[in-house]
Amino acid sequence: MKQFAVIGLGRFGTSVAMTLSKMGYQVFATDIDEERVNDIVEHVTHAVTLDALDEHALKSIGIRNFDVVVVAIGKEVQASILVTVMLKELGVNKVVAKAQSELHGKVLERVGADKVIFPERDMGIKVASALVSKNVMDQISLSPEYSLVEMVAPPKLVNKSLEKSGARQNYGITVLAIRRGGEMIISPNASQVIEEGDILVVIGKTERLQYFDTVEV
Ligand code: ATP
Q1: CB-based contacts of 120: which residues, under 8 Å, 6+ apart?
Q2: Which numbered atom of ligand 1 lies nearest the CA of 76?
Q3: Cα-to-chain-centroid distance, residue 67
Q4: Distance 84 CA to ligand 1 centre (A)
Q5: Which atom of ligand 1 is nearest to the CA of 10?
Q6: 98 lines ligand 1 (CB under 6 A)
Q7: What value does the mean pLDDT of the chain take?
Q8: 195 lines ligand 1 (CB under 6 A)
Q9: pLDDT tens-place string over residues 29-72
Q10: pLDDT value of residue 217
Q11: CA of 79 to the centre of ligand 1 (A)
């Protein structure tokens, strides 16, 4: 089973560590602030107080043996960059780092972060999309261009087959699955009729998905 280490136990790092732990993964959590470590100690496999800028401390906990190390230091931009560099130099396989800004993200990528995440920006996009959206329940950005969306079937599509709905022909959107009550219809065929209350799992260009959602079909 994958082993994770989380460095920095602010709101984000704590949430990542606790969620992984609840999912049954082994989680090593660390922060320079003893109080933050004490708050999480009962919820993760191991929690210790250390300064992640101290290379010897990182070596002594065997940091390179973790499959994924999450650098969840935000405000201390310099520390987040230096820790990322150090982790890669120490041979950590996958470093996921949290960025505060686009520039911070670019630097993290340059210094070797395997994945850079922008929690505040991404959550802002999600919340804004949900506010203007009529039907979208959840959205995952797959690339800068494409998204996977879970949405309540737009009323205009109800009682129409997928083929007649125009989703693919007019919007380039593919319906991957339909959730109907407790049932999941995977890879529905073109003749499948959409019913009121159906939840559609669709994939397509983000821009066109937004159009599909907000414009009467
Ligand atoms: P969040 O938004 O998730 O609450 P944040 O953006 O406020 O976090 P920071 O407070 O900068 O992020 O950092 C998160 C945590 O990282 C803090 O608990 C801080 O003590 C810890 N931290 C900062 N520098 C180091 C370091 N050198 N070694 C270990 N932990 C550190």
Answers
A1: 100
A2: 11
A3: 18
A4: 14
A5: 4
A6: no
A7: 92
A8: no
A9: 999 999 999 999 999 999 999 999 999 999 999 999 999 999 99
A10: 42
A11: 9
* Range 112-115, long-range pairs (CB < 8 A, 24+ positions): 112/84, 112/85, 112/88, 113/71, 113/84, 113/88
Is residue 216 scored above 60 in pLDDT? no
Residue ranges and CATH numbers for the domains of the chain are: 3-117 (3.40.50.720), 122-214 (3.30.70.1450)
208 pLDDT tier (thresholds 50, 70, 90): confident
Distance CA 89, CA 112 (A): 9
Distance 61 CA to ligand 1 centre (A): 19
Structure confidence at residue 63 (pLDDT): 97
**C-alpha 7 – ligand 1 centre gap (Å):** 8
- Say which residue the tokens 């100690």 belong to: 41
DSSP string, 137-184: EEEEE-SSSEEEEEEEPPGGGTTSBHHHHTHHHHH--EEEEEEETTEE
